Amino acid sequence: MSAVKADALQRFAAQIFARAGLPDAHAALVAEVLVWANLRGMDSHGVMRIPRYVALIEAGDMNPLPTLAIVSETAASVLLDADRAAGPVAMTAAIDHAMRKARAAGIGLALVRATTHTAALGYYTSRAAVAGMAGLAISASWPNMAYHGARAAGVATSPLSIAVPGGDAEPIVLDMASGIVSVGKLAQARQAGRPIPEGWAFDADGNPTTDPTRAQIPLPLGGPKGSGLALMIELITSLIVANPILAESLEGTETGRHHRQNGAAIAIDISRFGDVAVFRREAARLARALKALPRVPDTDEILLPGERGHRTRASRARAGIALPAPIAAELAALAQKLGVPPLSAER
Q1: Distance in angstroms (rounded) separating the CA atoms of residues 125 and 91
Q2: Per-residue H/E/C for 153-215
Q3: How far apart are CA 208 and CA 137, in angstroms?
Q4: pLDDT digits (tens, 9 = 90+) for 324-343
Q5: Which residues pair with 137 in a beta bridge?
Q6: What is the percentage of the chain residues whose pLDDT exceeds 90?
Q7: Is this prediction's pTM over 0.90?
Q8: Hey, how many other C-beta atoms are within 10 angstroms of the C-beta on 172?
Q9: What residue ranges define each of the domains in the chain, with the CATH number in brackets?
Q10: Are 206 and 152 in contact (CB under 8 A)?
């Protein structure tokens, strides 16, 4: 399929989610978050996730009609029970609650219990950065990544994102997982039939592999550092909100057989501690200093976190988003099943 304009892809995704049972507002938000990832080149967290989300609804793991409720609240925090809502719905609510608390207390924390795949966390932290705040988001999920020293999955590729206002119109956004590679990127390599680098993943038996059709278990980033980070994210999200995920799954309980995620969002109101304009100016100063450092061979430019994504977004906003043939075919089949008009290339 030729490149598709972002707004057309977003409308298509929203129609699918609406037909799958989400209210129009939720369907539009989930579509926006997924296409946001595609625009920034994070295709592993883009519309390729649509079939999986629909499957979660059909399996009863994702609730298309959730009742999000604040279970407890303090001056600077909320505990949000997401009622198995789509991750973008729950995490957008979480960062908005965190920002609300930050405006009053200087800092705000929103803990999220019982959501589903949280999509690209950079969307939520960028929301805070655009509002002149610092944002941080994490999420915990079922074990899909090897724990350092083990040949089997023991922790999740738990992601983390931090964003702050940048020196120009764009925020500085770190969006990373605790694994060397995400499960989504392994799926991309599998669909493309492209070998993966050594050291990325184990097969189902715990053996190293470069075959994308056999790669099942990502390895942790930095060995014990990545698996330790993933473990701590489980401890400070899932266990704090009394919704354990890893132990339930590793022990094979009935609860552990179902897809679940927990998360947290933090917002810091920079204006409560200093001048946001000064912060932006100092961020720009630091960026200039870093970019002026001597570069290693074959490095054309030193980039800030999120800078490549900003440029990709500008390019794809003009040229459209190209969908690999296997993903386009899967989306077409799902659209036909749900009675949604087919997606067509637009320029």
Answers
A1: 10
A2: EEECCCEEEEEECCCCCCCEEEEEECECCCHHHHHHHHHHCCCCCCCCEECCCCCEECCCCCC
A3: 31
A4: 999 999 999 999 999 999 99
A5: 161, 265
A6: 93
A7: yes
A8: 22
A9: 6-179+220-284+305-338 (3.30.1370.60)
A10: yes
